[in-house]
Amino acid sequence: MKNTRIAILILISLCLTNCSKKKSDPARPNIIVILTDDQGWGDLSFNGNTNLNTPNIDSLGLNGVSFDNFFVQPVCSPTRAELLTGIYHSKLGVYSTSEGGERMRLGVPTIAEIFKKNGYTTAAYGKWHNGMQPPYHPNSRGFDDYYGFCSGHWGNYFDPLLEHNGKIVKGEGFLPDNLFSKAIDFVNHNKENPFFLYIPVNTPHSPMQVPDEYWKKFESKELKMKHHNEEIEDENFSRAALSMVENVDWNVGRLMNSLKDLELDSNTIVVFLSDNGPNSNRWNGGLKGKKGSTDEGGVKTSFFMQWPGKIQKGIRISEIAGAIDLLPTLTNLAQLPDDGLIIDGNDLSSLVLGSGGFVEPRTIFNHWNGKTSLRTQNYRLDNENRLFDMNNDLGQHVDISNDNKFLVDSLIEIRRAWEAQSLISEATKNPEPFTLGYKNATFTQIPARDGTPYGNIIRSNRWPNDSFFTNWTKTTDSITWPIKVLSAGIYKVEMYYTCKAEHVGSQVQLNWGNQKLSTIIKDAHDPPLKGMEHDKSPRIESYVKDFIPIVMGEIELTEGTNLLTLTSPNIINGQTIDFRLLQFEKLNP
Q1: Segment 204-220 mean pLDDT
Q2: CA nearest neighbour of 471 among 575, 582, 541
Q3: Which residues does residue 511 pair with via DSSP β-bridges, in sequence order?
Q4: Is the pTM of this model over 0.90?
Q5: DSSP per residue over 14-64, as a string?
Q6: Domain range for 382
Q7: Whether 350 and 413 share a structural domain
């Protein structure tokens, strides 16, 4: 009996030791990556902008490490692809921000897959923008839990239509608040387990919507720091963007307080950055360019990393770095095996930890819409082969290429070699069909965003990401999608629609090869467009409305590639439905 009691005490002691070690072992730190959308380098008080106050975000840099020269890509999808893989987006075939061009090449491990493989619980909450249909969906690329939207932008930030692990759900309140609340819940549920948490928040991307409590502070505020060309700044847009950033800052504070309350702050690496330059002409430290530009202002972002007790406070790093460096740096800090990955990024852990070591000279490439610029430690060669001294001319005012012809020629050759590795041209000429029926996924969305209209049907807006199809007036009108069915089976199909009362009785038919699925619209649903009631600045995106689902029925799909076609063989009173999306549910595993 005595020996039994001793053995039990030893087991309890070992358990307590292991549990304690699991929670505080520096070899298994938790990872949180916060990525904002369209926030410029200048949109923080950390960088000297007195128009706003961002104490919680600033504290990540003040209590950790900040990079003075950190670069992403000019728009959303390319940066996200590089952050997730450590590989330049051009090698991943990412050539657009919608209609399939945002998808990353399959077979490339993501940072989430690597951490998951090594025992981490993974989650992503927010704007994905690297593929909607599995196996491009976040649940198929390493994330155990996903909540948010997969398109490039969303038309409504208050109680919006979202998805949770493929299921269509309704959001709760203001979207960024909702996303951070999900993140805080995730941390609480995984406080005893190592986790990798990715929060790609949707703001300050347009539409410019923010709760009134933030807007009231800025609505009539005088902006003392303005764009270097004041005549082209839309101050109302700037005020909206800054108020949205202050909301993100409040949410970052909520998250950090939760980590502290759970005693996880000392063993959690928190990273903060944005995906591209500012989405308007506002104060950005005099940098040239904004979102969409390959100049400094379009691709430079704040980058902070905090890890109390491991990363010294207030370190500022001047060496150039980029989104491609995040994967190798975080996996090394967590002491995960590299498995022989061939990537473009560099491990920056020696810089971050202040352990010294020689940093080899490097070149970082920025590319979008056929334009490539490159950045060395001291120079930027723009897409027109102009050279700028970035130590003394951050605004790129003085072209010094004529005095440095040898350097310019060398950099041009380096750029040509990099562009030769690109898969963008091939991906653009031969776009992959949209996938349906991935073996490990139950749900697949086929949205209006990815469809092609024929006849009188038009998009609700030229920007497809949150659009719907309307003006469906002829039986000869149709919508098609090139679809590759990955696994044969029976699929339940729901269609999200609106329909005026006078058009009830119209027939909608889905065609796949010889298979047909037809339904009659029996219920009127004609909600108004919305979004304008929350917009603080005029939008360019589509307004949205509340669509409802109708179960069309079940259809048998065979493996292979074909056109999925939606038609309306019978139209009542000159018009049929407005169409938002199809949701396929695989019924047989």
Answers
A1: 97
A2: 575
A3: 516, 565
A4: yes
A5: HHHHHHHHHHH-TTS-EEEEEEESS--TTSSGGGT-TTS--HHHHHHHHSS
A6: 368-425
A7: no
